[in-house]
Amino acid sequence: MEIKWIEDFIALAQYQSFSRAAEFRNVTQSGFSRRIQSLEQWVGADLIDRSSFPPVLTPAGQLFREVADDVLARLLDTRAIIRTEQRIAGKSLQICAGHTIALNFLPTWLKALAPQFGEVRARVIPTNVHDSILMLVNGNCELMFAYHHPELPLHLDAARYEHLTVGLDTLMPTSRSNERSAPKFRLPGTKQRPLPLISYTETSYFGRCQALLLKKASDALSLRLHYESDMAEVLKKLVMEGEGVAWLPRSTITKELADGDLVPAGPASWHLQVELRAYRDATNRSEFLDTLWHHLRAGSATLE
């Protein structure tokens, strides 16, 4: 039995709607229904009367609801006590972020907080977008940093999870330079000689950004998949070795562009701008987090 099943059940009892409860729990309706069924299998009885509209609790469900609220509250209180004891002393933050953000943005961002807040200690957990969202929803981090594009939103309850724009970045086609300081691989390529593409995996956020950009492109590209990874740093290394063309975040290649080691593989029409956002759970009333959030909001206004 998983704690999230109990949280799902309580949400369903509250909303009396599978679709609304699933949206609140940030999961698909089919996935939500499967988790409720798994809970019922664990209990050994039907907890929801699905023959009525809206769905209501069965007698077994009513009995389980009385216990579930208390058990969940005790578990969460105990977890909060343990997490408090495990926190870094002083002004500190638990942060989860994508690998690219953790490596290229957060060190400078954290250092920039010093004039306002003094030393801010942080525990940074690099992970993918899906796991970052789970950590935020489950209360395992205080701040989550993630990229955002209007056509590829993260499915978070806006009423509970606040966000601020803390930076902008650009995905741009990039190639190793040749001896004439021109791109070794230049878009769009030809049918006879398609360009080797160093790509993100389809399920990664940058992979979805890349797919969106290629779908919206007015000119046809001739590309052949050469390598694939879900980490921008891996793609960058392969591009540096002259293995092909890749869409890289500008923030990761600033020095290489300035040194001339890497060059744009195509015009700005092939670029895609994305926001860098910070997210927090609005129910977390940490005094330091509130103060920091107000500071970030003032800086965010200058980016809009």
UniProtKB/TrEMBL annotation:
Please give the InterPro entries that the UniProt record associates with this protein: LysR_HTH_N, LysR_subst-bd, WH-like_DNA-bd_sf, WH_DNA-bd_sf
- One Pfam family named in its UniProt record: LysR_substrate
Which source organism?
A: Paraburkholderia piptadeniae
This protein's name? Transcriptional regulator, LysR family
Q: Name one GO molecular function term.
A: DNA-binding transcription factor activity
Give the HTH lysR-type domain ranges: 1-58
- Which keywords appear in this protein's UniProt record, sorted alphabetically? DNA-binding, Transcription, Transcription regulation
Top-rank taxon, per record: Bacteria
Recorded hits in CDD domains, A to Z, give: PBP2_LTTR_substrate
SUPFAM superfamilies to which the protein is assigned, alphabetical? Periplasmic binding protein-like II, Winged helix' DNA-binding domain
Recorded family membership: Belongs to the LysR transcriptional regulatory family.
